[in-house]
Amino acid sequence: MKQTIKQPGLSTTAFKITNVENYRKLVESSYSGITLLDKNFKIFYRSLSAARMLGWTDIQRHNAQVADLVHPDDMENVLSVVQQTLLYPNIPQTCEFRSMHAKGYYIDLECAFTNMLEAPGLNAIVCNWHDITKRKDFERSLKQTLAELQDYKRALDECAIVAITDSDGIITNVNDRFCKVSQYNRDELIGHTHRMVNSGYHSKQFIKKLWHTITRGKVWRGEVRNKAKDGTFHWVDATIVPFLGADNKPYQYVAIRFDITDKKNAELEMERLNKELQQKYDQLKEISWLQSHIIRAPLVRIMGLIPLVKETKGAENALVFDYLLQSAEELDTVIKKITTLTTKQDFSFIN
């Protein structure tokens, strides 16, 4: 004969729970604390779990009031909930507050006050609460982190040109400096790509290499020339940082740029001056060559002919020829010095 296993029925389970001793054990093993208060909100019962979590003994907390339990900064909120509890019987009124632990520090509690003063055999305000310190610590840490991130963002916005794009390069956000430099407003930029500010200066290979770098999750750095709405150009020192998802692929890019237009213009002006100086140097070398080959060569021939003419003209003209020779030698010396100066001068700084 097959034996039938009887399952405990609802009535049996209810009996076990409603049994006073079993119910007390159930409450005491709970992770929540239970406190009973009279109509003046004085404590007359605390569960063992409440004593365990807060560290206070029943003697230490006997006849304690709400003001003894709550952090001063949370008192106003708790008193408001207390008033609502008295006004609306049997309707739980919830709040969060900090309560002093026996060791001198505060823990965070989430509490539900229920007015059961008229409930036969209970006649109390039931305070059911549990420790939410870890959650609140996390929330406070998160709040502080978000505040710090906001400070970082504000600092970055003060000095940098910032744009955020999705993985396809579509602009999703820009800061005020981007709008100011580009002369476009946000509505004109968001939803479009950076082709709006493309100056056409850089080669397709340059752009291709940029995209190859960031789509692989690598940071790209470089100098870019962009074009504003009015057609003017500006240079930026850019850093593009990919943000990677769980699949280790970029889901957005943050581009941080600094305006270096003045620096680039100064560099371009320096290049122009260097070219101009190089041209003058080349001209000077050409003049030196002319001095050496075109002017000095005939002069050397004249200097060689003067002694011969002097011999044929006689002594009476010797002083004149001596003077001519002296003058030619002096001119030759000057030309030599100019030629030496221009050929030996160091113009390496041009390059």
Contiguous low-pLDDT stretches (5 residues minimum) are: 1-17, 347-351
- By CATH's scheme, which homologous superfamily of the largest domain applies? PAS domain
What share of residues are in beta strands?
15-25%
**Counting H and I runs of at least 4 residues, what is the number of helices?**
12
- Helix % is 40-55%
CATH class of the largest domain, anyone? Alpha Beta
Instruction: Specify the overall morphology.
Output: rod-shaped
> In whole angstroms, how far apart are the ends?
109 Å
The side-by-side strand order for the widest beta sheet comes to 2-1-5-4-3
Number of domains: 3
Count of beta strands: 10
CATH architecture classification name of the largest domain: 2-Layer Sandwich
Spell the H/E element sequence. HHEEHHHHEEEHEEHHHEEEHH
Helix and strand composition category: alpha+beta
* Mean of residue pLDDT values: 82
Q: Write down the CATH topology of the largest domain.
A: Beta-Lactamase
Q: What can be said about the biggest beta sheet?
A: 5 strands, antiparallel
- Whole-number radius of gyration? 47 Å
Task: Indicate the topology.
Layout: H1 10-18, H2 20-28, E1 33-37, E2 43-46, H3 48-54, H4 58-61, H5 66-69, H6 75-87, E3 93-100, E4 106-116, E5 124-131, H7 133-159, E6 161-166, E7 171-174, H8 176-182, H9 186-189, H10 204-215, E8 220-227, E9 233-244, E10 250-259, H11 261-313, H12 318-344
Antiparallel strand pairs: 1-2, 1-5, 3-4, 4-5, 6-7, 6-10, 8-9, 9-10
Helix pairs in contact: 11-12
